[in-house]
Amino acid sequence: MLSIASVRAADDNKSSAAGQFESPDSATDAVQPKKDTAPDSASVETVPAAAIDVGDPAVPSPETVTPPTGGAAASTDAAPAAPAAPTADAEKPSLEANPSTDPTKPKIDTSFDGKPSTCEACDDEIDYLYVEPPEVPGFKGWKTNGIPRGHENDEMIPVPDRWRVGLSPDTRHPHGNILNPYRQNILKGDYPIIGQSLFLSLGAESNSLVEGHKLPTASGVTAQRANSEQFFGHGEQIIGVENIILTLEFYKGETDFKPREWEIHLTPVFNVNYVQTEENFATNIDPREGKDRFDYHVSFIEAFGEYHFRDISKNYDFVSSRVGIQPFNEDFRGFLFLDSNLGARIFGNLEGNRLQYNLAYFEQLEKDTNSGLNSFNFRHQHLVMGDLIRQDTLFSGYDMVFNVAYNDDEPNTHYNNNGVIVRPAPIGDLAIHSVKAGYVGFGGNGHIGKINVSNQFYQAFGEESHNALAGRKTEIDARMFALEASMDKDWMKFRASFFYASGDDKVEDRKAKGFDTILDDPNFAGGEFSFWVRNGLSGGNALTSLKGRFSLVPDLRTDKAEGQANFVNPGVQLFNVGYDAELTQQLTAKLNLNYIRFDQAAPMESLLHQAHIGRDLGYDYSLGMIYRPFLNQQVLITGGISGFTPVSGGAFSKIYANSSLFAGFLNLVVRY
């Protein structure tokens, strides 16, 4: 409720309304008696200038001024009479003037809360009083709080929009604008856009990537250069990617106090990508397409609706649902599944947010080959996943997660956008097959005393109806384990970690012991900065891959996103040491060194028909830098360089060559 000035005058000695209120620009009291016209008895109730602003008084109409009169008849011979003091009637504005058409009077909003005013007449003293809304910080949009005619004399005025009550003018309250997301802004969900509980939040992002690397690249049957006798040619490649991402969130609810009641969320993305290589066949199955490729794609990263079923405790423990294209991460580090795809999810929390749970079903969409974004075609892959997170379990500050997942990948044939077959894998008899794999696991993330700990374990089970390497139906029995321990020392962090994915030691038996994921994107052992994690590697002279891009596991899939899981693979053992340094508040450096080896060599020997390949791969080393020039996430510059040196005479040098590889990238993100 907002109180305004009310004026009460006694008997017939009424003071003029003109001059009673000062201009809004004045910082003095709102009421001042006009000189020589002080009222006999006036009661004035005001609100400080900090609460409201009062408009300029009406200008007296010359037609309503009453000529001064004397106590006796005037003589023509008498000296000119002194000017009489103005009376209240002389300064009183005409009540017959139309305020909507009279330019001397302020315009008055005659509606209140969307309804016309029923007031026919108001007190003479404040007949045309109009109170402007107080200053509202930031960009409040077109909505405002006005005081209509007919309610000027009310001691308390209902304010329809409590979000825009505002503050008094003060240079210490910086003004915002539509382009400033850090001040209150109607486009960022700080003010309701409809009514008092419907909000709109808009966002935009430019994500630009330039990357160069040297990878083992086959020269192919139609080589780019004459006399290319070696199987592997020139492996230098340059990649350029630009993503324009827009975000729209339309929701109901006062999220400062409780979860949203419902939400409509859209995140379209416009992608342009370019690749230049030094060999044919690297960009397309048709050598006539040349050694470079330009492509574009439009997709949705997110397109879902969310509905809040109910709150189940006074602490706002809740149950909600989402349906549509949405992101989901099965564990803390993205070891098993991290993707944004079409699905339905039930989620919520219990015990004052100590317990958090998710249960999701995904009907996977195909991925566009060159952008990695969702297409609008179904993949015929069905996923069921769930997790339960409990905070402060076993140790204060250590959170545990329990995972279940099921992957049902139907048998079908699929060629990617570049004309390469990816399902089934072009190995052996090319028989289409299904994969039905289940996963159970547990993990943790947090600290135990001064030691930061992150760990995860998965056991995989199920069956492949026909494995290409084994040449038969196989039963899945594989596992994965990861552990990272670190310690903070002032502005530094020292890390050590280990990753294990089991390999298959007997290719042709009925057991498939090599661990494979659903669709991983791990932040582990260097993550995006690591050469091994970031880059995909071909499968030697076979028409498949050793490992996918942004993956830890050498699973021998044709493609991480478009191929099928393969549980007859060599597995991996990775040993990591790392060092993070907060060099300044803006700049962070990350150093990593990994030693990598196969868990089992038998699948590679069977795939390449090559004996005694061995298990040692090599050393992966990287340096990453993260720069935040404005100490926030609105502008983020990330860059890294990495290299890989094979162990002399080891498995990597026998599969590819005994030469070092390198990679580097620069990523610029600008957000609104």
Q: Summed up, what is this model?
A:
With 672 residues, the chain is mostly beta strands.
Outline: globular
Structural class: mainly beta
**Count of runs of 4 or more consecutive helical residues:** 4
Q: What is the helical fraction, as a range of percent?
A: under 10%
Sheet with the most strands, sense and barrel status: 18 strands, antiparallel, barrel
From the N-terminal CA to the C-terminal CA, the straight-line distance is: 35 Å
What Rg is obtained from the alpha carbons, in whole angstroms? 37 Å
Overall residue-averaged pLDDT value: 81
How many strands in all? Answer: 31
Q: What does the secondary structure layout of this molecule look like, with pairings?
A:
Layout: E1 2-3, E2 6-9, E3 42-45, E4 53-54, H1 88-91, E5 111-112, E6 115-116, E7 131-132, E8 156-157, E9 198-214, E10 236-252, E11 262-276, E12 292-311, E13 318-329, E14 338-350, E15 355-367, E16 374-390, E17 398-409, E18 414-415, E19 421-423, E20 435-448, E21 451-467, E22 472-489, E23 492-501, E24 511-512, H2 531-534, E25 537-538, E26 545-547, E27 572-582, E28 587-598, H3 602-608, E29 616-627, E30 635-646, H4 651-655, E31 661-671
Parallel strand pairs: 22-24
Antiparallel strand pairs: 1-8, 2-3, 4-7, 5-6, 9-10, 9-31, 10-11, 11-12, 12-13, 13-14, 14-15, 15-16, 16-17, 17-20, 18-19, 20-21, 21-22, 22-23, 23-27, 25-26, 27-28, 28-29, 29-30, 30-31
